[in-house]
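Q: Here's a chain of 314 amino acids. Please give me its 3D structure as tokens.
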Amino acid sequence: MIDPRIKIRHIACFLEVARLRSVVNAADMLNISQPAATKTIQELEEVLGGALFDRSRRRLALTPFGEVFYRYASTSIAALRQGIDAARGGEEAAVVKIGALPSVSARILPEAVRKFFKAEPGINSRIVTGPNSYLLSLLRTGDVDLVIGRMAEPDSMLGLSFEHLYSERVVLAVRPDHPLLGEREFNLGMIDGYQRLMPTPGSVIRPLVQRMLVAYGIGGQHEEVETVSNAFGRAYIRQSDAVWFISEGVVADDVAENYLYLLPVDMSETQGPVGFTTRADTVPGFATTAFMQTVREVSENMRGAGPVASAAGD
């Protein structure tokens, strides 16, 4: 038997604090006071007999004890959600919940969703976008059925499975009349005097971009703007000399239509696998399985098209 002192509110509060790394933010999301959230976590730690969070840092971090409990707690909540949906039947069970990174949202999902609705008109889709860490937290708790995007680092994949669909690189996008497009022998070091739009810390592609900058001797923190907003990125670089490090899929259509250009630099070292991430302990339901097959078909067509080409010679 589970210790009767552990309630659903304890698990819900713990998972929210773990996801947001903040008791204050978790309390806001749960619509409770900060003292109430703090007390709930303390009660859970007393029952379990160990500290769940390392409170010595600026932002809360899970202890090794907390990491272990998180994996099992998130799985239990996900299973409970799945059971409730199955028991209710009807509309609740006829929704496929998809977490998608921005590059997938722009490049694959529009065609996949269109084909899916045509093939399965009785099933609705719910699409959530955001950074990879956020989407994986939703996957673990069952708030999404699968995540489509770059494969996360190995330490984030415990209890999860990955299916490769295709590979994608990071590109360097600029406005059509950007000064760097006129350089005869462009190299990455030439961006040193320009403002950079960078992926946010914690994003999958951030370490790849940082390694490239270090390799070319480009200093850090030079008027950097960190963003995961595609709408902001597109608007900002089209009215400035900023250069944008972004996943290829996000700007593929913009480049094809000559709204944006790619700087002619070899970005092959940023190539990485894109695919499905699912929970290893559950079998996807009919709606999720049908949607995944549609995405596979769209991805197969995209692989045949090859990488995005730039009018600047990339």
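Q: Can you summarize the key feature?
A: The radius of gyration is 22 Å.
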